[in-house]
Amino acid sequence: MMYEVAKREGRDDASRYPQAAQNQAAWLINNLDLKDPRVTKGQRQSEYVLITGLVQFAEMYPDKVPHGTKQFVRDWARITVDRSDNLWDFRRYSDDRWTIPAFSGGGADDPNEVGNVAGFSAPALAAARLLGNDPLAGRLREIATAQVDNIFGRNPTGRHASYDAPSKKVGFEGVEHGWFSEYYGGAGLLEDVPGVLDGSPKNGHYPFNPEQGNIGHTEGWVAFNTAWNESLAWRAADQTELKVSTRGRVPARVVQVDTQVRIDLAAPLNLDADTLGQGTVDVRVGDRVTKHVTVTQTEKNSKTFSASLNLATLGAKPLDAITVTYGHGPFAVSYSFTVTSRDSIPSD
Question: Which of 232, 234, 336 is closest to 284 using CA atoms?
């Protein structure tokens, strides 16, 4: 990101930033021991930074990413899958512990690890995207879903991570049991903030000891919800797909200049199950100004949105490339096709 800003500002030292990223990524790959749980689940809330950073580096600058990056991510994925082979599909700390151990300043013998449970989907889905058709990718997606389920109560306590989760005013729909307690005061004063993730099952709760009750430390942190937001972003990206087709749902490749095409967007935009929602995609002809096109939900409670677009309204000319895009930055998905004149497409 710093490199992109430096380029945009025309800074003379812009090249220093990708070089620094290269050096740091190479150090991580050559020095971190992924078998050491402190490198992975040992992070209470910021674990996602490592893998998401490497994946985005590899995707955006494949010519600059250090050799061995993909293998490093694959090794991380393999260890994660191995440690998640249990009845909860829960990514354990190690072979000997389910959750993180006590540490200096951790607050209790059983520290709170909400952040790495809530944030796990981000590195898991980032790794899955980089690994492509590797069988590990499918299992990572399953484990990512299991960690979200854990936050919502599929865990030994049967409780949502948020104390206020059952609240009809500030809670989550369908939740019956919130976390045992919430922390009052502290630096964040978060006890009255909606959506705070307060606690997660401790080592003593696993594999299934709900009678242990409210053990260990409980305290909501902004960093926990930051990790959760990162997971939500990657989950949304992982479920997003964009298609453009001509009559008969034929994928648009080379299309006549006056053709009407259909845009289909699959995305988690269903924020109200009782109404038809809308979204926006960007349509660009060559390098001209982008046009915003509204896509409408195909039916209530669906994640599919569509729109019809007459290419004649775009002012496109033969040989122009048209690109339809949804999302921004590393989460953007695009579909491109080429415009041709009516006479240049052979008849059947």
Answer: 336
- The domain locations on the chain are 32-238, 241-344
* pLDDT band with cut points at 50, 70 and 90 for residue 38: confident
Residue 46 Cα to chain centre, angstroms = 14
Interior angle at CA 295, CA 294 and CA 298, nearest 5: 150
**Percent of the chain as helix, strand, coil, to the nearest 5:** 35, 15, 50
Can you give the length of the chain in residues? 348
Residue 298 pLDDT exceeds 50: yes
Residue type, 242: L
261 Cβ neighbours under 8 A, 6+ residues apart: 244, 245, 246, 252, 255, 308, 309, 311
Q: Is 160 exposed, middle or buried (0-12, 13-18, 19+ CB in 10 A)?
A: buried
DSSP 45: S
- Whole-angstrom distance, CA of residue 52 vs CA of residue 124: 9
Q: Which ranges of the chain would DSSP assign to H, the alpha helix?
A: 2-8, 16-31, 48-60, 69-83, 114-118, 121-131, 135-151, 222-238
Q: Give the rounded percent of residues in the chain with a pLDDT score beyond 90.
A: 85
The span from the CA of 307 to the CA of 183, in Å, is 48
Tell me the pairing of strands 260-266 and 304-310.
Answer: antiparallel
Radius of gyration of the chain (CA): 24
3-class DSSP state for residue 91?
coil
Average pLDDT over residues 71-80: 98
Q: Which CATH number is correct for 241-344, 3.40.50.450, 3.40.50.410, 2.60.40.1930, 3.40.50.1100?
A: 2.60.40.1930
Residue type, 16: R
User: How many helices, marked H, and strands, marked E, lie in the chain?
Assistant: 8, 9
> What does the buried/exposed string (b/e) look like for 101-115 if buried means 16 or more CB atoms within 10 Å of the residue's CB?
beeeebeeebbbbbb
Q: Which residues pair with 296 in a beta bridge?
A: 278, 306
